[in-house]
């Protein structure tokens, strides 16, 4: 039976952009598992699999329905133990939870702030209105004000915040070591989100993080490049 992955898209159903969905997509590629992509918009998420939850990705594997990218990765390692491991054992799972927490508190907020209008612009009219209402309520100001000044001091500050990641990647090819693990897909997917929705560049040429990102784009037959840059 073919696995099915519900992924968030904008007006172009062939351009999934959610970082969380990309984590799941790369986890499946890591395992060498084929899947059927089922694109959904923001306003359709709540109806996925009869209202499984309020977020995607959602993976369907026969009768199994799994929501949340980390839960999907854990499920894949349990369900397909004969294929390459995403975590490398219990210790790897624990470290990966730290990586996810760091990424969602350091990289995600920054990207949301500098690409919020770009995300808005890839949506259709109905979803633009939905997205603007939700995000402006969360930020407490217009989207235009959120993204204003993205090339000023906060870009330099963001680049400095990547120094721990940069230092690690100067010593090893991937966050997971010599080979990629789910921890790599977590961080990669945040930058992939930006790559797909925006032309704004946050990584400088020659930065070890930029070099690592390019390596990740080439993984699994170039899965990351299957969706072109904005």
> Order of helices and strands, N to C?
EHEEEHHHHHHHH
CATH top level assignment of the largest domain: Mainly Alpha
Q: Enumerate the strands of the largest sheet in spatial order, edge to edge or round the barrel.
A: 2-1-3-4
Distance between the termini: 34 Å
**How much strand?**
5-15%
CATH architecture of the largest domain: Up-down Bundle
- Radius of gyration equals 17 Å
Helix proportion: 40-55%
Give the helix/strand class.
Answer: alpha+beta
* Whole-number total of structural domains: 2
Q: What's the overall average pLDDT, rounded?
A: 96
The largest sheet is: 4 strands, mixed
- The strand count comes to 4
Low-confidence stretches: none
CATH topology of the largest domain: Glutathione S-transferase Yfyf (Class Pi), Chain A, domain 2
Shape annotation = globular
- Figure out the total of helices: 9
Structural commentary:
This protein has 230 residues and is of the alpha+beta class. It folds into 2 domains: 3-79, 3-Layer(aba) Sandwich (Glutaredoxin), CATH 3.40.30; 90-226, Glutathione S-transferase Yfyf (Class Pi), Chain A, domain 2 (Up-down Bundle), CATH 1.20.1050.10. The protein is built from 9 helices and 4 strands. The chain has helices at 19-30, 69-79, 90-121, 125-139, 143-147, 153-161, 163-169, 182-197, 208-222, and strands at residues 3-8, 35-40, 58-61, 64-67. Strand 3 and strand 4 form a beta hairpin.
